[in-house]
Design goal:
Active site: 65, 138
CATH topology of the domain at 68-144 and 195-366: Catalase HpII,  Chain A, domain 1
Protein name: Catalase
Largest sheet: 10 strands, antiparallel
Domain Catalase core: 8-403
Number of helices: 13
Oligomer: single chain
Shape: globular
GO molecular function: catalase activity; heme binding; metal ion binding
Bound molecules: NADPH dihydro-nicotinamide-adenine-dinucleotide phosphate, protoporphyrin IX containing FE
Radius of gyration: 27 Å
CATH architecture of the domain at 68-144 and 195-366: Beta Barrel
Structural class: alpha+beta
Distance between the termini: 68 Å
CATH class of the domain at 68-144 and 195-366: Mainly Beta
Number of strands: 12
Cofactor: heme
């Protein structure tokens, strides 16, 4: 029997000529050309089937992080951290867990440039024996906001103007300068790390504080760092622009080609840990996403490595349909009270139901390992393709269907959680001078590497030159809060751009 597949319509009917259409033949007489054919017939299911499916090929793109590239791989435990975390996938040195990672830019559309100045998403799904764990990180250790209500406002300003449909430097900088807790992230973004050389040579950071439990039920705050074994390689502003002109999909191609050639990217995985008592003594809130945990106070501890060694077979099925959420945790790991993280726990599954449909978890790339698990609460819904749990009861605790209730996020005997008592208040996180202290330290870090401070000033100036002058002045004041030298350098750079007419 031939192994060559048979071309069919969607109901499986073999088709002899995929490109013919059913048309009414007409009298030849009077027509110069052949064949003589009249109108098309709606009964031509082969054609209608093909066109109707084509019409429905697009799903909504992600509202943020729309442009991305991904690959399968594995996570390997290299060090024992059982004193910190009791998740089973971490319980043995050498244990490997299959993963899927998607990298992305944030603000651009699905077809936008890979080399744009933007944070990069770094999302990894771990298919563990205790369910899917998603680490939905960025390549920056901090973020623009710490009040989740600001997220839609902030994102709107980084996208297109509602009238012109153009990127708009006025609204971009207007928002940021009016919300100066963003400064730390903006400095990171406008340093050369805002234009990574490729996706393989950049780091990933949890940004948020998470809570991890050991088997005694003791918990600590944890931040995770994925550090590329290639180091963090960057482009300068002009190199990024040139690369964009040559190939706007440069990062996607680089990742695919490297994996295809067996040059697998590797990240060393570390945690920083902090007890609740240590958190109380911090000069900032442990739930403040605009802050890092200083390395000298909270040193990195190695626990594993992430290797990407398998390209997707089909981009749409596996990369476009991948659905990551910080709410996908496994026993031993929990979200902290960081309000941005708490909001994300809602937002991701919500957008997945919109973007992919209520049964998005049945899509193979999103499906947890199945053996022995039973979730009868999830039934029916559009595009239910997994047998819908057959004849088993659609509720837990049925007399004829015993179910085990086993692992919990918190092991038994857990230390009491944080306790809060007080009035419900409309909290607005005020900006204080301390908020500019870590951006000031970042300026010093950049100062240790030749040209990095000047690059930051240049990268800001060539962007903000497109805004009106009062906003340009606000931008200089904004950066001066970290160190007056930055504002001065940007001011000088702006003047020289104006003089040279490069605007
Ligand atoms: P240290 O002063 O001990 O070390 C500086 C760290 O900064 C490095 O470990 C490196 O982190 C990162 N770094 C190096 N070069 C650059 C660069 N060109 N652009 C951005 N980051 C760079 O760090 P501290 O913990 O005391 O933090 C000082 C400042 O460093 C912070 O305010 C923060 O802006 C930045 N930083 C801190 C991180 C943290 O988690 N503590 C992580 C990244 C940046 P890495 O090896 O992770 O690249
Ligand atoms: C993607 C919301 C903050 C990392 C997304 C998506 C939404 C979203 C709706 C699209 C998801 C999809 O369609 O599958 C939010 C909200 C935030 C927030 C409401 C704050 C209130 C953050 C932060 C980080 C982050 C702080 C990193 C620390 C990512 C990543 C993706 C993403 C990596 C892409 C995931 C993928 O590759 O599919 N976010 N986000 N986000 N977000 Fe956030």
């Amino acid at each position: 029997m031939s192994k060559t597949p048979v071309y069919t319509t969607t109901n499986g009917k073999p088709i002899s000529d995929p490109f013919s259409t059913q048309r009414v033949s007409i009298e030849k007489e009077g027509y110069q050309y052949a064949p003589p054919v009249g109108p098309l017939l709606v009964q031509d299911f082969k054609l209608i089937d093909s066109l109707a499916n084509f019409d429905r090929e697009r799903i909504p793109e992600r509202v943020v992080h729309a442009k991305g590239a991904g690959a399968f791989g594995y996570f390997e435990v290299t060090d024992d951290i059982s004193d910190i975390c009791c998740s089973k996938f971490l319980d043995t040195i050498g244990k490997k867990t299959r993963t899927f990672t998607r990298f992305s830019t944030v603000g651009g559309e699905k077809g936008s440039s890979d080399t744009a100045r933007d944070p990069r998403g770094f999302a990894t799904k771990f298919y563990t024996e205790e369910g899917n764990l998603d680490l939905v990180y960025n390549n920056t250790p901090i973020f623009f906001i710490r009040d989740p209500t600001k997220f839609p406002h902030f994102i709107h300003t980084q996208k297109r103007n509602p009238q012109t449909n153009l990127k708009d430097a006025n609204m971009f900088w207007d928002y940021l300068t009016a919300n100066p807790e963003s400064l730390h992230q903006v400095m990171y973004l406008f340093s050369n790390r805002g234009t990574p050389a490729n996706l393989r040579a950049m780091n990933g950071y949890s940004g948020h504080s998470y809570k991890w439990y050991n088997s005694k039920g003791e918990w600590q705050y944890v931040q995770v760092h994925f550090k590329s074994t290639l180091g963090f390689k960057t482009l300068n502003n002009e190199e990024a622009g040139e690369l964009d002109k040559k190939n706007p999909d440069h990062h996607t191609k680089d990742l695919f080609d490297a994996i295809a050639q067996g040059d697998y990217p590797v990240w060393d995985c570390y945690i920083q840990t902090m007890t609740q008592d240590e958190a109380k003594k911090l000069p900032f809130s442990v739930f403040d996403l605009t802050k890092v945990w200083p390395h000298k106070d909270f040193p990195l501890r190695h626990f594993g490595r992430l290797v990407l060694n398998e390209n997707p077979q089909n981009y749409f099925a596996e990369v476009e349909q991948a659905a990551f959420s910080p709410s996908n945790t496994v026993p031993g790991m929990e979200a902290s009270n960081d309000p941005v993280l708490q909001s994300r726990l809602f937002s991701y599954p919500d957008t997945h139901r919109h973007r992919l449909g209520a049964n998005f978890v049945q899509i193979p790339v999103n499906c947890p390992l199945k053996s022995g698990s039973f979730a009868p609460q999830i039934r029916d819904g559009p595009m239910c393709v997994n047998g819908n749990l057959g004849a088993t009861p659609n509720y837990a605790g049925a007399y004829n269907c015993p179910v085990q209730y086993t692992a919990q996020a918190k092991p038994s005997g857990s230390k009491p959680d944080e306790q809060y008592q007080g009035e419900v208040v409309p909290f607005h996180w005020e900006v204080t001078d301390y908020d500019f202290s870590q951006p000031g330290k970042l300026w010093d870090v950049l100062g240790k590497q030749p040209g990095e401070q000047d690059a930051l000033a240049h990268n800001v100036a060539v962007h903000v030159i497109n805004a009106i002058e009062p906003i340009q002045e606000r931008v200089c004041e904004y950066f001066s809060k970290a160190n007056p030298e930055i504002g001065e350098k940007i001011h000088n750079e702006l003047q020289s751009l104006r003089r040279s007419g490069k605007m």
